[in-house]
Design goal:
single chain; mainly alpha; 2 helices
Amino acid sequence: MDPVNEVDVTQSPRQWLFVIVMDVLVLSELCVAMYLAVASAEDFTATFIKAFFGMLIPTLVVGALAKRRLRPATVKA
């Protein structure tokens, strides 16, 4: 049994768009965290970890909740 469900763009464009938006958000958070870490070079690692995970964790929580709302309704027979 394969636990990964493929998303068909034609049948669920909202889920496909959601994945793209989440990817862009995580990449932008990574860029912002790197920028902030470089600005304080003496404390690079601590600044990066605080900035990146401070933005990433809420993004993933909101993303998980949004994914549940975008899940297609199951039809009971």
